[in-house]
């Protein structure tokens, strides 16, 4: 079983070296080791590996698998970083929710006829 998994991983890395143009690594935090209160789920994000050829990027990514990585290992002081982000949307919410306005009482829009 282990031989099949290793062979499949090797074939996947060969295919990645042949066809991929960008290599990204999926990373996550460990809330138990962080001192963030109220955080139970890990925060996950993809980090793109730059520099060098694609096979070099793949070997670098494989060397980091299942190891804790600190920010100091990847980035230097005052280094510029490109960030690609997606905001967490709220779907098709209404104007009141989006702009934070107050809801008016029930009978404010009617005209009183005597």
Helix content: 25-40%
> In order across it, which strands form the biggest sheet?
1-2
Shape: elongated
- Note poorly predicted spans: none
Q: Count the DSSP helices.
A: 4
**Tally of strands:** 2
Largest sheet: 2 strands, antiparallel
Structural class: alpha+beta
Radius of gyration: 25 Å
Distance between the ends? 86 Å
Fraction in beta strands:
5-15%
Q: What is the typical, i.e. mean, pLDDT? A: 82
Order of helices and strands: HEEHHH
What does it look like?
- With 114 residues, the protein is an alpha+beta fold.
- The protein has helices spanning 2-19, 54-63, 71-74, 95-99; strands spanning 23-28, 44-49.
- Strands 1-2 form a two-stranded antiparallel ribbon.
- It is elongated, with a radius of gyration of 25 Å.
- It starts with a helix and ends in a 15-residue tail after the last helix.
- The mean pLDDT is 82.
Task: Record the SSE blueprint.
Layout lengths: L1 H18 L3 E6 L15 E6 L4 H10 L7 H4 L20 H5 L15
Antiparallel strand pairs: 1-2
List the defining traits of the structure above.
single chain, 32% helix, 4 helices, alpha+beta, 114 residues, elongated, two-stranded antiparallel ribbon
Structure, briefly:
The protein is of the alpha+beta class and 114 residues long.
């Amino acid at each position: 079983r282990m031989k099949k998994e290793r062979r499949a991983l090797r074939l996947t890395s060969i295919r990645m070296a042949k066809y991929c143009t960008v290599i990204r690594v999926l990373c996550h935090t460990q809330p138990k080791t962080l001192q963030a209160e109220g955080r139970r789920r890990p925060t996950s994000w993809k980090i793109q590996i730059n520099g060098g050829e694609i096979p070099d990027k793949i070997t670098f990514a494989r060397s980091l698998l299942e190891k804790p990585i600190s920010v100091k290992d990847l980035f230097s002081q005052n280094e510029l970083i490109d960030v690609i982000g997606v905001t967490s949307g709220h779907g098709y919410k209404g104007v009141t929710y989006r702009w934070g306005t107050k809801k008016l009482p029930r009978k404010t829009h009617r005209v009183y006829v005597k």
